[in-house]
Structures
1.
Amino acid sequence: MSRRDFLLLAAICFVWAVNAVVSRYAIADAGVPPLLLSAARFALAAAVLSPLLRPLPRPLAPLILVSLLMGAGHFGVLMIGYGLVDASVVAILLQVGIPMTALFSALILGERIAARRLVGIALALAGIVAVLWRPDAHMSGLGAAAVLVAAASLALGSVLMKRLAAISPMRLQAWTSLSSIWPLAAASLAFEPGRAADVLTQPLVFGGTVLFASLAVTVISHTGYYRLLRRYEASLVSPLTLMFPLMTVVLGQVLLGERPDAAFFAGTVLVLAGVALVATSAARPTADHTT
């Protein structure tokens, strides 16, 4: 990877880390409703990407399902997690999505899980247990569960996406945004009644978070990331994205005053080692082709 592209990937990971910290602050400290925040994020992204919605893709139903899993199912539930657990914990727990993707690929697509991946999955799961096992510290079980569900939703959507007809990454982002507005808005009305008024007390926080998540993350960073994936093998790009959780841990400590304990750091090492094993075996050459 060229120095320029490495710096681009580092910048993308930094944007993701900033978004994690900003989301945690907006929801946990400023009291912004998480589901309403997610709905607003996708509404703005859908407006920006609306020219990419045409022509209408066929078949539409599988695309909508994938869009809901990767949009509302992932980000909506993830925002709930940000309101309950530290940003650094969220960033580490999200990494279990890579082993989950390998498992879903085996169950749904019939892909074989090599021994290297099995070791990586076991290490990642052991790390998750270490991160969550804190008898003497406060840890929201609901928040951790929400993050793991969000990771599973994204992993399942990523696997099902392989069955879709060819679609550009930005068109997928456009349909993900459009499909996710409505269930998130409905969920906000049902589970956050009257909380829309809370936005009026923190208009700058709400507006800034929506703008950053929609434009800097969804439109700009994801576009750059997909371009790198087209240029380089996934086995090279995926391990380097581990800069994201590491940056999030640092920013969480500096900006939010988070203080991870020794168990967290031990679990983090196990999770990242396991994820690296899974990611670096994801595109290993075989006798016939490179996967």
2.
Amino acid sequence: MHTTNDIKSIINKMSVKQKVGQLFLLAYPGKNPEIIKPLIDEYGIAGCYISQDNAETFDEAEQISSKLQAMASQTQNGIPLILGVDQEGSWGVLVPESHTGPGNLALGALSDSIRVADMYRVLGEEMLSVGYNALLGPCADVNLTPDSPIIGARSFGEDPEKVARCVAYAVQGCTVSGALATLKHFPGHGSTSGDTHREIPRVERTLYELFKTDLLPFIKGVEAGADIVMTSHILYPKIDPENPATLSPVILKDILRNRIGFKGIILSDSMNMGAIRKFYDPAESTLLALKAGVDIVMLSEEHYDHSADYLDKQLASLRKAEEAVKSGKLSVQEVDEKLFRILSLKLNKMQLRTPRLSAQRYSEAERIQNDISDQCVQVLQKGLWPLPKAGTRICINAAPETAYRSLTNARGIGPNQKKTAYEYFKETLEKSGENFIYLNHNEALAENEDRFKRAEAILIVTEDYPLPGEDFPKAEQEKLAQKLATKYAEKTVIVGLRSPYEIKLYPKNVTYLCAFSSRGCAAKSAAKAILQFPQM
């Protein structure tokens, strides 16, 4: 255990360059960590943002985390790295080997919120066992705008108190696992209809309104012991009319530090996102964030940008901050205060790795994931009940066939599963041996209506994926589903492998079965529910 004097002594011996390096969490493309070694050697950076592009398996993850920490140990101060991953359920890494669970929206639908702690313990244990020591989750955002293109299934729901309870349990699960927990996206991304990967959204809420809604999960997460809070690039004009949250001293210092009392690390969301990149000079924006109250600036590898000079831009930001400290634009005292928080976390709480999970523990993680996923499936609207076991039963993939592939091509963050939710759903039905006629989107559009008229049941599977900077084509699915559901309401079952907010589009006598998730485990659970329909 390092005392206050120990940490201050380390800080006093650090050069300006070394101090500045600890204020940056950076990323690199591909599977070779040697690419980022020059930045570790020269600046001793705080850590790395790791995505599916850097490692796809547990073995690869263990190798790169070992190499990265070895690089850090050979620097003058030997300070270990924070290795952060978007392992939050709906988004994940090391897929399909890791157990992501069904995601937050599904967990929020559970009657027993304590299961959230069980799932987040699994997330943390698996990541820490390969050397990923910081979960960039849970999302503490409240779904106050259900059609949000980027939050949706990443949120625990639309009830602030329920979300707050789930966030607290998620933090507890992380703490038990030994992994660091991150609340995001402060002061809340759930009230936006825009995506900060593309633009700066606006939220027209007063501070009083925020404390009643968006801020409640962050307050409970901080009380539960969250180590890190990640900022959002959102403008709250009734609180700070000029600066998005990441660049706002009012939001970060006055509200998060002073009003809420958070004493941990404030981490920016990626400064490469469109909300910042399109409106600010990259290097200048990092300086503004640090002055506003951010402790660690994150520059993650954004694949919708495909910037060839990505690492050069990271270096430019480091040098800009170094120059600012030397010139007095960024005070040494404030930098030292940030460093004290960072080193206190790294040296007194952060773990580098736990032993790889045994076969027994891995099987236990699988069981926990599947049990929770099964419990999340709900029938939200009863029409055809129970599902006929005989006669013609048609199963339709409402999504255009190429939609998922085009969205996830060469993407390091997001769902990262190899197959679509529908494919997992269909495979589970096929393995049961029961007879279904399977139609894709185009086949369903072209199908002779006589077959639909003769069918005993029509299953229409809808899905959605929260992807950064991209939209999954929901409109095409909903148009097809509405058409068939309106014509054949009494025999139609909508299977929602997504958020349930689409339910308002369909007739009241349509059955709506919801898994609240597009994860593979959720799709399998939905299929099992269809097969066990009389028991539900």
